[in-house]
Amino acid sequence: MGEFWGGWMEAPPRECLLSVVNPSASFPALRPRGWTQSSAGNTTYTDYRQVSDSVSLRPRLDEAWIWRRLKLVQSCPWAHNAGALGRYRYPPPPPYRPQLPAVPQTPSPPPCHPSLPRREQLGHCCNASADLVLTRDNTPLGSRIVCDGQPAKKLLVQEALLEILPQGSPFQGAPYDSCAVVGNGGILHNSGCGPEIDRAQFVIRFNLPPMGFSEHVGTKSSVITVNPSILVLRYRGLSRWRRPFVEAMGTYGAPLLLIPAFSFIGFTAVSSQALYTLEDFGSLARAVFMNPEYLAGLDGHWHRRGLRAKRLSSGFMLVNAALELCQHLTLYGFWPFPTDPEGRPLSHHYYDNQPSKPGVHAMPDEFTRYLGMHLQGALRLHLGRCQEGPAGGRAQQGSEGGV
């Protein structure tokens, strides 16, 4: 198939938008409120925000819908849209204005607040740069941590916990100029995307993936997530397998290990053990705990937007965080189906064919959100091969590697 991105400058061509979000299409849920039509018949698209937010798939038709949309948009170019990306950012504090003495005024009716932020905008629910991980700044002594996966379970914040938390957010360097979020999908196998991924300033990976595929997935790792269940199954809960865990972490360099330690009460102990193990062995990697309050807010935001997953995937959580932390964002290895866009069979992961636990995540539905964000220009969704340009330059536009 052709290239999936290329060069929208101000606005995408009318024929591309009409092919992607057609008011007369058989999937009316995709119709954004920003479409207007003049008496002359000219159609204008005025609201990028509705592309991803309006997606609602019919049961059992999600895969067919995605394939159909991908075929329609394969010829549509892409360019970064800072305005679309901006809606995913947490709003900056208002500028300081000295308080003047109050002047008595005649009471007026309350305003309609037309300029108040839309509650569904991601930036107004979830502040990743400050709250993605637990810190002493956002976790006061004596407060209670509510497990996002078990809201009935609450933990009292004591001195022992604060001692192992960082003082402030580890993302002080954000926003990063360029980021690569590297999923584990089989579509990365034989992709040749390693050099392109390693050129990113900030690289996010998931669940301690094997690193013996550098040609296709790169070697750089800034953040790596790990589900506590992996620590239990792969390293026996770190009771006797501490050294193998540290040696495995050594293959990633000096990343930040991001653990959802307080999503479920049963995983807090093994998560703490991972942190202590890295410290005891002098590992360059550093463990931090994801903030369950942030995760609960993120889940609520997307639940209101129609994403009905039992639990958001780690990939989806970190893509949302990266939208705030990164100026230019590219996704690799995100593809939820057993065949590639050309119909060739794929393994579940680029390193094995072990399927995930069914019924927990809504991967196809999450993928539609990535597709919508790509159409907005908020991020670039890369599928297929990466092809090096002359002298190791950027991937060539128009080369194989789009959808």
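(the above was protein one; protein two follows)
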Amino acid sequence: MDINGSEVAWRFGAGNPSLEAASALSIRAIVHRLYGCVDRSNPRKLAPLGHGDPSPFACFRAAAPAEEAVAAAAVSGKYNSYPTAAGLTDACSAVAAYLSRYLPYELSTGDIVLTAGCNHGIEIMMAVLATPGANVLLPRPGYPLYEARAALGGLEFRHYNLLPEKGWEVDIEGVEALADENTVAIVTVNPNNPCGSVYSYEHLAKIAETARKLGMMVISDEIYEHCAFGSKPFVPMGVFGEIAPVVTLGGISKRWMVPGWRLGWIAMTDPKGILRKKKIFEAIIIYRGISVDPAAIVQGAIPQIIANTDNAFFTNAMNIMREAAEICYQKLKGTECITCPHKPEGSMFVMVKLDMSYFEGIVDDIDFCTKLAKEESVVICPGSGLGMENWLRVTFAVDPPLLEDGLERLKSFCLRHAKPQEAGDSVMC
């Protein structure tokens, strides 16, 4: 009431329908709710198999030279000011040189825009492409932040399928059927979150040729770059930049095991300069100018982080990840009601399918994950949040003993909730 005792007709409220639509697509919101279901009185250690953050575990501790570089940048007093819109010049130059190691051409400092993590890069690209009538092609299953950011900006998105029977490769024919004259980009994720697949050189070439045929750019999410431990090596999509223009999204959060440092990049891996001619780079800079900056201290440290991190750190991290992936695969393979169509070869995840007919009293994957969190203190991401109902996304970026224990609890949960007449039946990988 106002001073005269009458009701005030407040004119504001949180009723933005675009925000509500975007929130419904947030994987973080789903996983956060699952953590809220955990019984805190349970004496067993929480097994966090729902999101890819290995940093809390000592076996995945960041490289000492990287930590020392950030500390040195902080105490130097040189990085207390606002950085430029694209990022500090030395930082952009270091990232350009780093990415160029794996490309058949050289990137320049001007090809790089630094972001506050890869998620910020996704936000920027979905905003830049949100012109009237445009649409983008997104993978299913995929990383839901693309859908959320597209929905928030009013950008239409269409889903193409990844094929589990083909190692989660892109359904090229499906892509061609989905695209029309308003399709501006296709998003690929390699190594893949959530499937754990790594695309071959030949398959990436097919994607690039398809993008050229359809006149669209490729947005290549490579936040898990070099996180490959199977038979196929990581190949950057930018290798095919001569075929079709590629915007590469990356960062240090996964390879360096420091997601909290929030340093990512957008790279124009486009030797023919098509993205500049189409003013995409200019639009990215404009958006960065009205958005947030990655911390100047971390930007200042990037040249030393890249230069001083020994290859032994990466090799050791991948050896542990390979061990964890093998534990995950074997434990899931031995769990009734779960089918694993493809052994993980990269990233920090694997997708597995639930046989819902096996259970009594569990109606879908969300119900499964909710009860699992409450009864076993194991958090796993339901596939529904990724466009795959009655599937699960499991992360193995966890200390191996805890991972093994968490998956044993998962198996016990499945057995406890099995229909009595089907408790002895198995669906194996």
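Reviewer note on protein two: The two ends are 64 Å apart (CA to CA).
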